[in-house]
């Protein structure tokens, strides 16, 4: 809470500083009409190019500001009302009567407070963008100042995008963290390099969203590069909902004139990472086949143990090798297995593991998600949503918003239907 207060105070100070500068600038221009003409212009080789660039920046800033002013106020009113209601529940409810329910109420109250603070912070950023734009125009259009206002408006747009998407994430477990498991296909080194590129893509997208990914396990078969398998954990709310649509097979396709097409494949699995509490699910130990595998020394000279667990009833297999000891790896693997089983129970709308229909359990390798074509033409085709983008490198640079947004909207539409 203290961090949000400091951030808000910083924006208020910036707001006051910009307001002071603008008032002084207005006074100067009033006293000296020739002052405007005397202001130095940014040096550009093409005046028309500069005007076009400034028009584009102004338009983008105005769009973000208008969107924030329409959505931000109503969102703030809604979230503040929700927070007040939860504060009333805290006052009226005997917190010691039911500790589990009390914990849930307090967690929701803390989340509401964070959202309210973020929306208040958004209003300061909107005002900052508007004031800097006004200052730029008084300077007879200062390109550097417009870029500064544009940066502020980009922050506004990103927050609104994330806020709107999070409001659609109402499915079971979609508000949890995420564990992403990526494995290379059977094409050898090509597939391992492809996995490395996918890891970079997800980490770059997460960084742009303010999410922190942690690589907890990584297996490299070759010293010359590439990754055969990797596990990334995102311990932030809604990460599972954001990444869920990425589950399935991702294929990179390159066609050469003198040979057949080369395909590099990798499978992405997405599992909920429970943040507040581990969901209780009884798994009969008789249905578990547990193997303990010794690993080679890592780059620090340490030997470890991989714990592999197979659920014989469903055929699901999980493993863990990133923890400090064998027991911790066993518990981590067991939690991943339970998370997978909970998702299957939800998808099949059953309550007991014995009710799971094994023939209805979808193998991610049999579920194609996306194709990335590099030659003879460039195209990224999302098989699930039908969305296509023309530049694979743009997507691999972490620009996944069109796909992730489409997957979320599709799931929301199915839930509503």
Automatic annotation (TrEMBL):
InterPro entries: PCRF (IPR005139), Pep_chain_release_fac_I (IPR000352), Pep_chain_release_fac_I_sf (IPR045853)
UniProt record similarity statement: Belongs to the prokaryotic/mitochondrial release factor family.
Annotated Gene Ontology cellular component terms: cytoplasm
Record's protein name: Peptide chain release factor
SUPFAM superfamilies, sorted: Release factor (SSF75620)
GO molecular-function terms, A-Z: translation release factor activity
Signal peptide positions (record): none
Organism: Artemisia annua
Domain Peptide chain release factor positions: 134-246
């Amino acid at each position: 809470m203290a961090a949000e207060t400091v951030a808000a105070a910083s924006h208020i100070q910036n707001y006051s500083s910009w307001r002071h500068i603008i008032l002084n600038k207005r006074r100067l221009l009033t006293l000296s009409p020739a002052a405007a003409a005397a202001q130095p212009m940014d040096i550009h080789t093409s005046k028309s190019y500069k005007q076009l660039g400034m028009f584009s920046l102004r338009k983008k800033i105005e769009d973000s500001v208008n969107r924030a002013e329409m959505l931000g106020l109503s969102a703030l009113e809604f979230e503040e009302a929700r927070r007040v209601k939860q504060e009333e529940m805290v006052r009226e409810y005997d917190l010691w009567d039911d500790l589990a329910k009390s914990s849930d109420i307090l967690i929701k109250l803390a989340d509401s407070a964070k959202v309210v603070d973020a929306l208040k912070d958004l209003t300061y950023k909107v005002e900052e963008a508007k004031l800097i734009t006004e200052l730029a125009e008084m300077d007879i259009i200062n390109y550097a100042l417009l870029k500064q206002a544009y940066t502020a408006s980009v922050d506004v747009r990103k927050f609104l995008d994330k806020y709107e998407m999070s409001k659609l994430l109402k499915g079971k477990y979609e508000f949890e963290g995420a564990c992403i498991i990526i494995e290379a296909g059977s094409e050898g080194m090509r597939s391992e390099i492809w996995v490395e590129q996918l890891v970079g893509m997800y980490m770059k997208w997460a960084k742009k969203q303010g999410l922190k990914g942690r690589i907890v396990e990584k297996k490299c078969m070759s010293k010359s590069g590439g990754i055969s398998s990797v596990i990334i954990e995102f311990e932030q709310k809604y990460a599972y909902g954001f990444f869920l649509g990425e589950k399935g097979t991702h294929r990179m396709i390159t066609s050469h004139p003198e040979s057949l097409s080369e395909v590099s494949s990798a499978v992405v699995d997405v599992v909920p990472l429970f943040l507040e509490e581990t969901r209780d699910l009884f798994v009969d130990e008789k249905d578990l086949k547990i193997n303990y595998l010794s690993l080679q020394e890592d780059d620090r000279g340490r030997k470890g143990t991989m714990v592999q667990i197979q659920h014989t009833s469903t055929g699901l297999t999980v493993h863990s090798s990133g923890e400090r000891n064998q027991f911790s790896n066993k518990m981590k693997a067991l939690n991943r297995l339970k998370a997978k089983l909970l998702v299957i129970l939800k998808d099949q709308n059953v309550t007991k593991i014995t009710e799971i229909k094994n023939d209805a359990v979808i193998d991610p390798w049999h579920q194609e998600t996306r194709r990335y074509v590099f030659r003879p033409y460039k195209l990224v085709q999302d098989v699930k949503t039908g969305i296509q983008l023309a530049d694979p490198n743009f997507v691999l640079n972490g620009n996944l918003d069109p796909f992730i947004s489409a997957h979320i909207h599709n799931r929301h539409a199915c839930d509503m239907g």
